[in-house]
Design a protein that fits this description.
30% of the residues lie in helices and 27% in strands. By secondary structure, it is an alpha+beta fold. It has 2 domains: 229 residues, Aminohydrolase, N-terminal nucleophile (Ntn) domain (Glutamine Phosphoribosylpyrophosphate, subunit 1, domain 1), CATH 3.60.20.10; 213 residues, Rossmann fold, CATH 3.40.50.2020. The chain has a 7-stranded antiparallel β-sheet. Strands 5-6-7-8-12-13 form a 6-stranded antiparallel β-sheet, covered by helices on one side. The chain has a 5-stranded parallel β-sheet with strand order 18-17-21-22-23, sandwiched between helices. A hairpin with a 2-residue loop joins strand 15 and strand 16. The longest helix is centred in the middle third of the chain and has 15 residues. The two termini are 29 Å apart.
């Protein structure tokens, strides 16, 4: 998500494009922006990448005082045009636009309540229900209705909102998903990661606090904590995989943290080998840390085609194997005759790993040892990462040795959970439920999902 406010008006849609482009890694399925024009909200959104959907906003200058943008990666609700964000509405509380990162864990009961009371939903995402709760609130003002709504929500939600001519930033009390606010000249910016602010050259910035609600308009920036404090539970998977390496999230450099994790992995799962090769791009930083710690040579033995999407969502084994071959290709001279340590961020179903090991063996590797810079994924995520049900997670069915035999590797080893916790700082308050099964908030319909 990206949001921008400028009281004197600026080329908001154009800046939203550049901010969203830098956040493309957070969602490749759809993109959209909403901005204020002539006292009304204009929204443009569609399925596809930022460049494909929003490049029209680079061909003509459009001035505005406030705007928000979103890139979507489906977790709750399918990849349909109805679910593309920002979501907008005009109701008794004014004109409202919402962009949302995260999942509302009590969405099923809230949805049932609203439908039972006559609400009509246009989408299947859990974002639209926020607008229904605000509109149906009996509070006298939008501000009161918003706080009432926020207190009904459980789970993960970092929000960028527009209400009339005000930009609003919200972060849930646990701080599951990252959110930053910054200022430059006469503009105020909010963004999911600092890399979006870097492209816009916004250096004066800070993390939005868990439970913080910020209003930004012509009167200035007003901040409040809207709820009682709870224990911080930032998503550790942001640091392992999801965030961009050049970003800072939760107060940590993503690249440096991944190197630190890779170094810890070398201490716990070293094996005699000739070369360390990352699975690009999410394995690069951890592989550097592993190589430096182990003293084993680092090599870019796989090249990545950046114009392909995710391979694990394709329906057949043949299609998934072809997708891996389209996305990743071995550099034979770096692999042939070598004992390879292959570093990846995590292991989900095992399909991609199996195809990768096959590719590397075809390129002439003598041995292939897979090392994961995350613990074993055993539980689904209900807070905004698309991790499947337990029965689909390979670590719930097989031991590391069994996985090695299944994917054709000589060995497989994961980063122990206690080592991960020590690496990121045990007192920092991270959610690692996908590894431990210890969910920090109640999850409705959990047994149906696991």
């Amino acid at each position: 998500m990206v949001g921008i406010f400028n009281a004197g008006q600026d080329y908001i849609p154009e800046q939203l494009f550049y901010g969203l482009f830098s956040l493309q890694h957070r969602g490749q399925e759809s993109a959209g922006i909403a901005y204020r024009k002539d006292e009304r909200l204009v929204v443009y959104r569609d399925l596809g990448s930022v460049g494909a959907v929003l490049s029209k906003y680079l061909t003509e200058k459009r001035k505005s005082s406030v705007g928000i943008g979103h890139v979507r990666y489906s977790t709750k609700g399918g990849n349909t045009i109805e679910n593309v964000q920002p979501v907008i509405a005009t109701c008794n509380k004014g004109q409202i636009a919402v962009s949302h990162n995260g999942n509302i864990s009590n969405a099923p009961s809230l949805n049932d309540m609203l439908v039972g009371e006559g609400s009509i939903f246009q989408s299947t995402s859990d974002t639209e229900l926020m607008l229904h709760l605000i509109a149906r609130s009996r509070c006298n003002t939008f501000h009161e209705a918003l706080i009432e709504t926020l207190k009904k929500l459980e789970g993960a939600f970092s929000l960028a909102m527009i209400h009339d001519d005000t930009l609003i930033a919200v972060r849930d009390p646990h701080g599951f998903r990252p959110l930053y606010i910054g200022t430059k000249d006469h503009s105020t910016y909010i963004a999911s990661e600092t890399c979006a602010m870097d492209i816009l050259q916004v250096e004066n910035r800070r993390e939005v606090k868990p439970g913080e609600l910020i209003h930004i308009n012509a009167d200035g920036v007003r901040s409040e904590i809207y709820t009682a404090p709870v224990r911080r539970k930032a998503c550790v998977f942001e640091l392992i995989y999801f965030a961009r390496p050049d970003s800072e999230v939760f107060g940590h450099s993503v690249h440096m943290m991944r190197k630190k994790i890779g170094s810890a992995l070398a201490d716990t799962a070293r094996v005699d080998a000739d070369v360390v090769i990352p699975v690009p791009d999410s394995g690069n930083s951890a592989a550097l840390g592993f190589a430096e710690r182990s003293g084993i040579r680092f090599e870019l033995g796989l090249t990545r085609n950046h114009y392909t999407g995710r391979s694990f969502i394709l329906p057949t084994t043949t299609e998934r194997e072809l997708a891996v071959r389209m996305k990743l290709h071995p550099v034979r001279p770096a692999i042939e005759g070598q004992r390879i340590i292959l570093i990846d961020d995590s292991l989900v179903r095992g399909t991609t790993a199996r195809n990768l090991v096959k590719l590397i063996r075809e390129a002439g590797a003598k041995e292939v040892h897979l090392r994961l810079s995350a613990p074993e994924l055993r539980w689904p995520c209900f807070f905004g990462i698309d991790i499947p049900t337990r029965k689909e997670l390979i670590s719930n069915r097989m031991s590391p040795d069994d996985i090695a035999r299944h994917i054709g590797a000589d060995s497989v080893a994961f980063l122990p959970l206690e080592v991960l916790r020590s690496s990121v700082g045990s007192d920092d308050g991270f959610c690692d439920a996908c590894f431990s099964g210890d969910y920090p908030v109640h999850v409705e319909n959990r047994l149906e999902e696991v």
